[in-house]
Amino acid sequence: MTRPGKRPGPPARLSRGAIVAAALSSGDLESLSMRELAARLEVSHSALYRWVSGREGVIDLISETVIDRIIPADAPTPDTWREWLGRLAWAAHDEFLSIPGYATRISRPHRHTRGFFTMRDAVVAAFRAAGADPELAEQSWYVFGTALVTWLGAQEQRLLGDAPLRFDLFLDSLLRGLPARETPEYGIRPAAATD
């Protein structure tokens, strides 16, 4: 029985961390149901819905947790921005590929969560530390983020072949080309051929 004026809230044993841990322990995010997750947490189905709006809400919690884990605690500086982005990328590599199906899911079009914007802001700050103006820092984020997430999704799906690929070579090539610059040598559209 609740006291007058006090609304019932989520059960005390539920927390963001508990939900994420239970979801990750399922081993397969694609087939995880809310009923299965509630059973793992030993709470009612309706109690779980007081914390998250549904399966997508669980995935959002996981994404926010993953992003919190991969962004380095220190801020990028003009001397450390490239190394800082390297640490972020390696952490993303390890975190994304440790959760079955996660890299593939994130590499497909999806609704962006708070975690996406947190990561975008951190990466843009790194490119600003590298000396890029605001527009080029934002463009550099799109190149970096798209390339990183697509590569990890393709690696997880083995779309890039059966042999293990060297993430270090991919990352080195990616970071050597960033931040983006105006009038890139290879980015100019060729003139249309005339008959």
Automatic annotation (TrEMBL):
An annotated Gene Ontology molecular function: transcription cis-regulatory region binding
Cross-referenced InterPro entries: Cro/C1-type_HTH, Homeodomain-like_sf, HTH-type_TetR-like_transc_reg, Tet_transcr_reg_TetR-rel_C_sf
Designated name of the protein: TetR family transcriptional regulator
Keywords (A to Z) from UniProt: DNA-binding, Transcription, Transcription regulation
SUPFAM superfamilies in UniProt: Homeodomain-like, Tetracyclin repressor-like, C-terminal domain
Gene3D superfamilies: Tetracycline Repressor, domain 2
Naturally occurring in which organism (per UniProt): Streptomyces glebosus
